[in-house]
Amino acid sequence: MSAETDRQGRLYIPKEVRKKYGERYHIVTYEDRIELIPVADDPLAAVREAAGGLRDASVEEVREDIEEEAKVDAREKDADR
User: Fold this and answer.
1) pLDDT tens, 2-59?
2) How far apart are the C-alpha atoms of 36 and 29, rounded to whole Å?
């Protein structure tokens, strides 16, 4: 699947993709590509679930851990292709 930006740089995501993954995404940049990572409907609940035993960690530390986990997941999916 591919998509193009309009003159103002907006990217239109097909309806079936939005329906499956939602309306909000994190943009993860790599040296050679970008990836869109869906944002949970309740981000705080998703952070708590992903953080597990990191109750004493700062919000920034938890955020960094989650972002790194998303990047690892994306790399693994890319390797499976």
Assistant:
1) 888 999 999 999 999 989 988 889 899 999 999 999 887 777 777 777 767 666 677 8
2) 9
Q: What is the DSSP string of 35-78?
A: EEEEPPSSHHHHHHHHHTT-TTS-HHHHHHHHHHHHHHHHHHHH
Residue 27, token pair as written in the block:
């943009």
The full length of the chain comes to: 81
Distance CA 37, CA 75 (A): 12
Q: What is the pTM of this model?
A: 0.48
Which pair of tokens denotes residue 31?
């040296």
Q: Could you give the angle at the alpha carbon of 29 between the alpha carbons of 25 and 16, nearest 5°?
A: 35
Residues 6+ apart with CB under 8 A from 59: none
Q: How many CB atoms lie within 10 A of CB 66?
A: 19
